[in-house]
Amino acid sequence: MRAVQGALIVASSLQIILGYSQLWAICSRFFSPLGMVPVISLVGFGLLDRGFPVVGRCVEIGIPMLILFVVFSQYLKHFQVRKLPMLERFALVLSVTVIWAYAHLLTASGAYKHRPAKTQMNCRTDKANLISTAPWIKIPYPLQWGAPSFDPGHAFGMMAAVLVSLIESTGAFKAAARLASATPPPAHVLSRGIGWQGIGILLSGLFGTLSGSAVSIENVGLIGSTHVGSRRVIQISAGFMIFFSILGKFGALFASIPFTIFAAMYCVFFGLVGSVGLSFLQFTNMNSMRNLFIVGVSMFLGLSIPNYFREYSASALHGPSHTRAGWFNDFLNTIFSSSPAVALIISVLLDNTLEYKDSAKDRGMPWWVKFRTFKGDSRNEEFYTLPFNLNRFFPSILSVVEP
To answer: Which ranges does the record mark as transmembrane (predicted)?
Structure first.
């Protein structure tokens, strides 16, 4: 735990520096709508192993959850109570409640009493004994596991994970903006978000959470399902998360929901995020063989290369990169196990080297360029100013010039 804490603390500096120095904003000038298609698409589609393969572990719960959620959120979305689209806005809460109660009924009735251990772990609501073992109150505090230890090898390995998180979050930011009907995030807003995420990773390391912070792809998909993109919702949700983290019994109650239920939701959420990436094709010329080559190759390799790395690691118990330098192995194996990271490397490289001088219009750059700066669109003031009048304390953040 102390080693992971130290690695997170060191690695967080990478995102903090890239974000607040605006270096990531400068890097984003090489991104075009065409180059972002594979990245954003694979942010969603690249998580396919967390979808139906997990649903299949407990089909009697997963399939009803998937069907009920689709029915509530799509087929019955126009059902209103006092002019409020109840089923569209609360499809997730209602379907989870119904299927969770159904799963608990199966558990209490003894339906899984003589089933294999794997089936019980994926279907039962009481298998992990979370509620009985969780404390009533537990207040987390910094360095609760002791002083963090710092090792260069661990730090470099964690930096690779932070880079992957940075790339995936970039795609998720753009997908969230599109699903929320906002303008594409300007360069400095994108970089600012990466900086805040770095601070989140730093706090994760200080509090010993074992994992860092990244954009929730599930929540991005939820925006597309509910059509609710309000900051206030996120702020209230954060309050609930703090509440449940302190009162352990309440947190354990929700943690007892079988993961199969979440996997059924992922089938919809990740699909929505992936489709957002494909929607950027409308701003490009897909009659161009150049564009077809870039999109096709980067998406295929974005799925194929990580699959190779995962299969190799599962059979050989180590990644394809297996030199004497452990930190180097961790770095390469982590980067190339991420579909969005591979897609970004390939698509941006090809897009900026293959006939790029005469293909600005085909790449979608005329549509993209006006959103590069904060003042490029009057709607940015509504979407991207900091909340709680924080712009008074960071006035310079709005005057960053286009990279």
So the answer is: 29-48, 55-75, 90-112, 233-255, 261-280, 292-309, 331-350
Sequence-ordered list of residues with C-beta below 8 angstroms from that of 114, at least 6 positions apart, any chain? none
d(CA 389, CA 394): 9
The DSSP string of 40-61 is HHHHHHTTGGGSHHHHGGGHHH
Q: What are the two backbone dihedrals, phi and then psi, of residue 268, each rounded to the nearest 5 degrees? A: -85, -50
Give the Å distances, CA to CA, from 389 to 386, 392, 399. 7, 6, 16
CA dist list (Å): 332 to 319, 320, 335: 9, 9, 5
- Domain assignment of residue 112, given as a range: 1-135+148-399
CA–CA dist 179, 176 (Å, integer):
5
pTM equals: 0.89
74 vs 91: CA distance, rounded Å: 9
340: nearest Cα among 200, 170, 218, 184: 170
Q: Is 84 helix (H, G, I), strand (E, B) or coil?
A: strand
pLDDT tier for residue 153 given thresholds of 50, 70 and 90? confident
In a domain, 141, yes or no: no
DSSP per residue over 235-246, as a string? HHHHHHHHHHHH
Q: Does some domain include residue 24?
A: yes
| 364 backbone φψ class: left, alpha, beta (φ>0; ψ -120 to 50) | left
101-109: average pLDDT: 92
Position 279 in a domain: yes
Q: DSSP character for 183?
A: P
Q: What are the tokens at 316?
A: 């050989």
| Amino acid 325: pLDDT | 86
* Mean pLDDT score across all residues of the chain: 88
CA of 401: how far to CAs of 29, 145, 193, 389, 397, in Å? 12, 43, 17, 22, 10
Residue 274 has pLDDT above 90, yes or no: yes
68 alpha carbon, distance to own chain's centre: 24
Distances (CA, A) of 173 to 15, 54, 149, 180, 185: 15, 26, 33, 11, 7
Per-residue pLDDT tens for 213-257?
888 899 999 998 888 888 888 889 888 888 888 887 777 788 788
d(CA 346, CA 343) in angstroms, rounded, equals: 5
Does residue 143 sit within a domain? no
- Structural domains of the chain, count: 1
